[in-house]
Write a structure and sequence with these properties.
Shape: globular
Structural class: alpha+beta
Strand content: 15-25%
CATH class: Alpha Beta
Number of helices: 6
Mean pLDDT: 86
Low-confidence stretches: none
CATH architecture: 3-Layer(aba) Sandwich
Number of strands: 4
CATH topology: Glutaredoxin
Largest sheet: 4 strands, mixed
CATH superfamily: Glutaredoxin
């Protein structure tokens, strides 16, 4: 009887340990998935997308006055992404002319190259670019406007 009880607990313990491991290693797993996705792109494709990013978000070259770009990768059907809509509106209102807020819908075909270029493995994902169009911050999941604002100061 005791042996049978132990057999019942083994899958439960294994599941709990697996869950804890996934929580603890979440960022490492997401970084691995992102790098794997990026590595599948050809160098020509990476260069073409990089040129587009520089044209759009390098504000020293394109004579726009923004200091930062806030790229929000998400979907309209995702709960956390819908929460991020409010954060995007707060950032737009808090930093007019300083932060260019851009929503990129990951399910739209025309955005797939950008999604692959940045290695988006989960949504929502926020990427902040400096005035030169270079990434300096990345976050996965929901982030509050106050927490995000710390990266614009």
């Amino acid at each position: 009887m005791t042996m049978q009880k132990n057999k019942t607990y083994i899958p439960i313990i294994f599941t709990i340990l697996l869950f804890i491991t996934l929580v603890v290693c979440r960022d490492d797993l997401l970084n691995y998935l992102s790098k794997n996705q990026i590595s599948r792109m050809t160098e020509n494709k990476k260069q073409a997308i990089n040129d587009s990013i520089i044209q759009l978000y390098n504000y020293q070259n394109n004579k726009q006055n923004f200091d930062y770009t806030f790229l929000e990768f998400g979907s309209t059907g995702c709960h956390s992404c819908r929460q991020m809509e409010q954060v995007m509106e707060i950032i737009r209102a808090r930093y007019p002319g300083k932060v260019n807020v851009v929503f990129i819908h990951v399910a739209e075909k025309e955005n797939q190259e950008m999604v692959n270029y940045y290695g988006i493995a989960t949504i929502p994902t926020q990427i902040l670019l400096n005035k030169n169009g270079k990434e300096y911050f990345r976050h996965h999941g929901y982030i509050s406007a106050d927490e995000l604002s710390k990266h614009f100061e």
